[in-house]
């Protein structure tokens, strides 16, 4: 751990779609998916409002392969990772910025699309001991 610094994110939310898995030139897998979290608050009139926030999740190597196999739209999962800010240039030369959560651990809390009482599938603990995998800086996703 770096001296006196922490970059840690923990989220519980639902997948907005199945993970998209690609392979970088080195052969490492990278999975991308969006995770929705909700929060409630009172507006000026005292009415309870609900807001959904979407988080861009990136999983590398072994975690990407597990994501592809076990994660599906609607599933409720716990994700632990770190914030990563990236600047990159798209195909048209436009400068882009994005904020990702690079996963180092996830856990399925319940399966999606089959009702709230469906048990989560049995899978081994999924962690990335290497802290993010073999990332390829040339890949803007």
Q: Could you give a short description of this structure?
A:
The chain is mostly beta strands and 141 residues long. It has one helix and seven strands; from the N terminus they run ββββαβββ.
Identify the notable features of this structure and list them briefly.
141 residues, mainly beta, OB fold (Dihydrolipoamide Acetyltransferase, E2P), five-stranded mixed β-barrel, 1 helix, globular, disordered C terminus
Notes on the protein architecture:
By secondary structure, the protein is mainly beta. It has one domain: OB fold (Dihydrolipoamide Acetyltransferase, E2P). It contains one helix and seven strands, in the order ββββαβββ. Strands 1-3-4-6-5 form a five-stranded mixed barrel. The chain is globular and about 55 Å long. The C terminus is likely disordered.
């Amino acid at each position: 751990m770096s001296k006196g610094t922490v970059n840690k994110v923990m989220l519980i939310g639902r997948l907005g779609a199945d993970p998209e898995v690609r392979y970088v030139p080195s052969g490492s897998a990278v999975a991308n998916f969006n995770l929705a979290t909700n929060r409630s608050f009172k507006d000026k009139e005292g009415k309870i409002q609900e807001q959904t926030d979407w988080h861009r999740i990136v999983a590398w190597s072994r975690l990407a392969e597990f994501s592809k196999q076990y994660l599906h739209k609607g599933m409720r999962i716990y994700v632990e990772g770190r914030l990563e800010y990236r600047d990159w240039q798209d195909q048209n030369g436009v400068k882009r910025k994005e904020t990702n959560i690079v996963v180092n651990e996830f856990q399925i809390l319940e399966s999606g699309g089959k009702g709230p009482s469906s048990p989560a599938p049995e899978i081994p603990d999924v962690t990335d001991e290497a802290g993010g995998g073999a990332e390829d800086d040339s890949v803007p996703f």
